[in-house]
Amino acid sequence: MRYRIILSLAVSLLVAGFSQAQRIKPRLKEVSLNNLEFFQTPTANWKLIGEIQAGYNDTMLNTAKGMGILHNDFSRAIQNKPVHNLVTKMEHGDMMLEFDFMMAKGSNSGVYFQSRYEVQLFDSWGVKTPRSSDLGGLYQTIKKGNGMRGKAPMKNAALAPGLWQHMEISFQAPRFDTKGNKTADARFIYVKLNGITLHENINVDGPTISASFEDEKPYGPLMIQGDHGTFAIKNIKYAAQDDLNVDLHDISYQYFEKSATNLAEAKTTKPNLQGKINALDSRLAPARDKFLLVFDGKMNIPATDSYTFSSLFSGTGSLEIDGKKVLEAKDLFLNGSPVMGTTALKAGEHTFKFWIHKDLDWARPGLSLYIEKTNSKSIALHAAASMPDRSPAPLIAVKAESGPEMIRSFMNHNNRKLTHVVSVGDPAQVHYAYDLLQGGILQAWKGDFLNTTDMWHERGEPQTATPLGAPIVLAGNCPIYEKTTPKDSITDYQYKGYTLSAGVPTFSYTYKTLSIKDKIQPEGKGLKRSITVSGEGKEKTMIRIAQGSSITPLGKGLYSISNQSYFVQIPADLFPKIENFLGQQVLLLPAAEAIQYQLIW
What we know:
By secondary structure, the protein is mostly beta strands. It contains two helices and 46 strands.
């Protein structure tokens, strides 16, 4: 094992290329699941429910009456009968879609964009090498000859059956000319599963197998497959991503070199350069620094709506539309976050004035201006070369292949930056992060181990490490349970180091008169944790096995935590206590005996 302690090194100041303006995530519209009015004539297998429970070995999902969750109550009688698929009344072109879903063991379904292009939903838990038929895969097309033979996800980010999972998809519809001839294939801009990117910019040259249509169109309904298996879906949100056609014209510019710093000074100063141009462009400034660029022009807005503008440059500047200031920045840095502003605009022509003053000799020049609105894409109003693409930081990853790895770092957890974290990776591809100040597991994940780019690239800021797999996030608190503790932390905890056995660490710490040994290691499809307590008072001490918004017994020692976010398995002959604590629930066992349990996800 290599135990790495990361130190902050003083290195020369380097600016990492140019940063494109951050895209504003569109406001997604949520589909009401208080009824089925969003869908065309649902068949009887589609039911609205209020609660759902399942273990990782359950081939059916246990449901309770209510609303808010859409359940496909699959039976063999409807297998391979497409009439039982669920189709929306809404038809879409380009679209962003998000939803949560739960698969029963061995189950199968899919989401078909425009009822033609499938993203696979499947129980792929534990699959080492995913195929196009696995969760998140893009199924093969029905096109004969050289059609797409399917696209497997880059990683398997699947969680266990019975757990809620999250998928995000950005889809671009095929393009057609005025005569109806296809000019561009459908494309998946990205597919993300549980926060992990599975696909980026994948063209699909035709409808996939089991599509409702063999032709292709600019618009079509969304379809959810119902004739293949049992699953549930909730929190369905979507946003159309229509093209936004905004035209800039009659643009003029003025360039001042060391002679003006703002609009007031520009009015009384003769510009060094001026003229008519076709696009906003930072390259109109011959100098690298100490210059003012002022743009005046007109823009055509296609529809009355609220529009958001975003800009990035180095220095000071602002955008005015029809004399009204829309965005303004002081001491903006090109490699930082853009300045943004939103304003209501009527359809038609508007005047604009946009200026920047660069007075940062160490910062590189560049200028961007984007516009977007709800249900539209963000488009650039500047020349492409005005804002060179940012050179992405190289991925610096730590692998756990030849043996276990331990990496010390900072880590973000529940909106807090923790400073004493060790991440432990294992060749079994089951990993976890541990808070040495609390003795708590922060998160656990599978697949690749650790992204250390923010620790080792350039200046090494912000010195945080992040999982390379889809993590489950735990409470991260000390196993020693003190209900009287005013905060969700233990202040009498003292870390005493660790010992190794076959490369696996056992952490040691004390709490008051107690000594605790904590060993965590891969087992099966999860982690086994062994906790032993010695010392005066252990008979009265309770060990916190889990903490979450809810804890639900599922039978035979299996518990679901935080509304089916992960499982805890304890020996079936033990009977833990569940009680409320700080607005959550805790699962407790007495510390009198050695405790073993398993985290499963």
